[in-house]
Specification:
This protein is an alpha+beta fold and 430 residues long. The protein is built from 13 helices and 18 strands. The chain binds 4-amino-1,4-dioxobutan-2-aminium adenosine-5'-monophosphate and magnesium ion (MG). InterPro entries: Aa-tRNA-synt_II, aa-tRNA-synth_II, aa-tRNA-synth_II/BPL/LPL, Asn-tRNA-ligase, Asp/Asn-tRNA-synth_IIb, NA-bd_OB-fold, NA-bd_OB_tRNA.
Length: 430
């Protein structure tokens, strides 16, 4: 019977075969411990000299890291291992040997590991982070499907730029100029007028010359867009969504969180509602905290966001930023037209902004004015202004950055570990 490591719990005291790789090995004269991994998990295999042929025992002792093989044996319960089960091996069939595997159990530098990202992905820690990423994606589809959203896939090759023109990746589209999408939002607004509630999940690109622990050049974004939705209602959707993914990861990724030594008590505190603080109050708070470098009208940098976030044990919404530091499409705040109906959601523990969202301008004249003020080509946006000509409605939406959310929930310091093959400033390989 061929099974996976994940299935082992259902096969206690039975003889099974597992296709696996050698993650690590320890042996003495009498016994060999093989750390096996098969993609579904990690498990220890035990080879006892007295219980197998001399040939099998010698083979077990000679196995090198990352050799692929079929192991056959009996599954037993083992309270000492975190996983809870191990295999008493009776047979080994090598599939392909591996020699001089570059990533040994000793410590390696970050650049070395990044150069070997295609292999580094096999390590326990990286495996755990990708599983958490996968759980966030699964819970995302679950949340939006359960709440009446239709998934819409906006184009990747585009002619318009929602988030400002300075960070665009240019490419040729036959004889025309095109950009890689920095956000699907404008197309999602069109789709929301057809389907009411929509969301997308896809790659986005920012030619940002930022080399920080929070910035990727290519990252994945979840972007919901909702017709007949005021900004305050959108904040409720956002906090319910974030709460759902945190709860799902806590419930379904226990082994991974444990392996990553994530302090889950901090995640347990993430209950709705999340606090809301206005940009104005945030500025005042920062001044009280001794940040003399920031004035009303400036955008926040990471130290500012972290200072604000550290004041709370849940994610915090900063609402109503100044109009001049936000994109052209945001609805003015009726209580102060120098600000807009928007919010950034700042994660706790210094992980920074994970969501940016707003209510969108629904008035045609105002939108045209903003397009002109921002120096955008009206022809490139005529599809977007059309939405205000034919039955315009108040609508709101937001974008959650997947990798920053993975970093936060996994407790990893840098977003480079949260994408399988991160695109960073100065890194396009592997
Ligand atoms: O705040 P941003 O730029 O918002 C938008 O793109 C909106 N159009 C979304 C919308 O309303 N539909 O980006 C949204 C989120 C940020 O909060 C952050 O989590 C993530 O995307 N993000 C990045 N993640 C990694 N690397 C980068 N360079 C990122 N830039 C933004
Ligand atoms: Mg933002």
């Amino acid at each position: 019977m061929n099974i996976t490591i994940k299935q082992a719990k259902d096969y206690v005291n039975q003889e099974v075969t597992i296709g696996a790789w050698i993650a690590n090995k320890r042996s003495s004269g009498k016994i060999a411990f093989l750390q096996l991994r098969d993609g579904t998990g990690f498990m220890q295999g035990v080879v006892v000299k007295q219980e197998v042929s001399e040939e099998i025992f010698q083979l077990a002792k000679s196995l090198t890291q990352e050799t692929s093989l079929f192991v056959t044996g009996t599954i037993t319960e083992d309270d000492r291992s975190k996983f809870g089960y191990e295999m008493q091996i009776s047979g080994i069939e090598v599939i392909s040997e591996s020699h001089d595997y570059p990533i040994t159990p000793k410590n390696h530098g970050t650049e070395f590991l990044m150069d070997h990202r295609h292999l580094w992905l096999r390590s326990k820690r990286q495996h755990a982070v990708m599983k958490i990423r996968n759980e966030i994606i699964r819970a995302t589809y679950e949340f939006f499907n359960d709440n009446g959203f239709t998934k819409i896939d906006p184009p990747i090759l585009t002619g318009s730029a929602p988030e400002g023109t300075s960070e665009l990746f240019h490419t040729k589209y036959f004889d025309e100029d095109a950009f890689l999408s920095q956000s699907g939002q404008l197309y999602l607004e069109a789709a929301a007028m057809a389907h009411g509630r929509v969301f997308s999940f896809g790659p986005t690109f920012r030619a940002e010359k930022s080399k920080t622990r929070r910035h990727l050049i290519e990252f994945w974004m979840i972007e919901p867009e909702m017709a007949f939705m005021k900004h305050d209602q959108s904040l409720e959707v956002q906090e319910n969504y974030v709460h759902h993914i945190v709860k799902s990861v806590l419930e379904n990724c226990k082994l991974e969180l444990d392996l990553l030594e994530r302090d889950t008590s901090k995640l347990e505190k993430v209950a709705t509602p999340f606090p809301r603080i206005s940009y104005d109050d945030a500025i005042e708070f920062l001044h009280k905290e001794g940040f003399d470098d920031i004035e009303w009208g400036d955008d926040f940098g990471s130290p500012h966001e972290t200072a604000i976030a550290n004041h709370y044990d849940k994610p915090v919404f900063i609402v109503n930023y100044p109009t001049k530091i936000k994109p052209f499409y945001m609805e003015p705040n009726p209580e102060n037209p120098d600000t807009v109906l928007c919010a950034d959601l700042i994660a706790p523990e210094g992980y920074g902004e994970i969501i940016g969202g707003s209510e969108r301008i629904s008035d045609l004249d105002l939108l045209n004015k903003r397009i002109a003020e921002h120096g955008l080509d009206p022809d490139a946006y005529s599809y977007y202004t059309d939405l205000r000509k034919y039955g315009s409605v108040p609508h709101s939406g937001f974008g959650l950055g997947l990798e920053r959310t993975v970093a936060w929930l996994s407790g990893v310091e840098h977003v480079r570990e949260t994408a399988p093959f991160p695109r960073l400033l100065n890194r396009l390989y592997p």
